[in-house]
Design a protein that fits this description.
By secondary structure, this protein is an alpha/beta fold. About 30% of the residues lie in helices and about 25% in strands. It has a single domain (about 10-240), classed as Carbon-nitrogen hydrolase (Nitrilase/N-carbamoyl-D-aminoacid amidohydrolase, 4-Layer Sandwich). A hairpin with a 2-residue loop joins strand 6 (about 135-140) and strand 7.
Length: about 250
């Protein structure tokens, strides 16, 4: 009985902070290795387009590689959950798709709907449907995702304000690191939930992969390729019970 309660309240979270290389297979090997190394029942988050980078000159190749990687992630996720985004083609357009692999199954997918014009994303990707940004459940835990630039849009915070964990795969630049840190912490505090951020540690990237508590406490280390924390989901319930923000406007 105690074991069942433990599994319900505590979850092992792993957020990755890799260098992303031009060689797609090098990136894939790293991600699969991290999935295999993580403890059973872990929730693992990798950065946005961690397989390929944005690779605007290799979009067709990146899309085809995503098919190979999808099968690898399905095979590797036997007793854990893995999340990242990847470049995929639909019709004539390319989408930046967030995918959740759980116990050898793809249980959720959403396309990035807010494209970062400063990075020319709108010239290479189609925007996803806003209605795809909905909560999903992992092992009984209500979760949601925002993809990088989407973190800036408060209306998206409001759509997912009742979830327990928000995952943010990103490719956020060093020059706007303070924005990244401030927004991610504010989201955790405003929505009274855990926020898990994954960002690369390439040159000019903000790093800042972190696991943030509902109290705004950040578990991070910009020098490590992997940050792992066991979270207590009771903190979400406690925060919402004592600081009641129903009907809040963030």
């Amino acid at each position: 009985m105690r074991k069942e309660v433990w599994l319900m309240i505590f979850k092992n979270i792993v957020t990755l902070q890799p260098k992303i290389y031009q060689d797609f297979y090098t990136n894939l090997d790293f991600l699969v290795e991290q999935i295999q190394k993580a403890p059973k029942d872990s929730l693992i988050l990798a950065p946005e387009v961690a397989l390929t980078g944005f690779s605007y000159q290799r979009m067709e190749e990146a899309s085809e590689f995503s098919k190979i990687a999808t099968q690898k992630f399905l095979d590797a996720s036997t007793d854990k959950t893995f999340m990242t985004t990847m470049i995929e083609k639909k019709g004539r357009g390319f989408f930046n798709n967030f995918k959740v692999f759980w116990h050898n199954t793809l249980i959720h997918k959403q396309s990035k709907s807010k494209l970062f014009a400063l990075g020319n994303e709108h010239l290479h990707f189609q925007a996803g449907d806003e209605e795809e940004c909905v909560p999903f459940v992992i092992d009984g835990v209500k979760c949601a995702a925002l993809i990088c630039y989407e973190l800036r849009f408060i209306e998206k915070w409001q759509k997912i304000q009742d979830v327990e964990i928000i995952f943010i795969p990103a490719q956020w630049g060093e020059v706007r690191k303070e924005h990244f840190v401030t927004l991610a912490r504010a989201l955790a505090i405003a929505n009274q939930c855990y926020v898990v951020v994954s960002n690369p540690r390439n040159l000019q990237m903000a790093k800042n992969s972190a696991i943030i508590t509902p109290y705004g406490i950040m578990h991070k280390n910009d020098k490590k390729p992997c940050i792992e924390v066991e979270i207590n989901l009771e903190e979400v319930e406690h925060m919402r019970k004592h600081i009641q923000l129903r009907g809040m406007s963030v």
